[in-house]
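Worked example

This section walks through a single chain of length 130. The input is the sequence exactly as stored; nothing has been trimmed or padded.
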Amino acid sequence: MWDKIYFNAQNVETETDKSILIKMPSKSAYEGMMFWHPTSLVREEGGKGYHLSFSLSDTWQFKVFKQYKNKTKREIILSPDQMREAFGISDEAIKRAVEAEESSHEEHYLIVSEPAAIDKDVEVDESLKR
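Given that input, the structure is written out below as tokens.
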């Protein structure tokens, strides 16, 4: 089953033609770590380009690593459930913002009606005439 995890555009470290390097949230146990994800599975969700999401399957595993000066320091494998947990706080907040933005885009219609004609004789005050 496919799922979406929402995140901020600030979490994007770098982007190539085929993949995006995404930083883990600072409020998670994996702060300072990052992972590569296919560009085709990352979508802009709203917030003027600030809200993004990445799609994942229940069978995937993510290789999350910490890197110093182009040397990989530490590498761990995370399951989709661990990823949902790590992105949990920001995911829920952004999900609510995206849903609120989508609901505000409902179509609204302006109903224009012709005003009723006034059938009164108009009298002009003599002092206003030239």
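What to look for: The chain has a mean pLDDT of 84.
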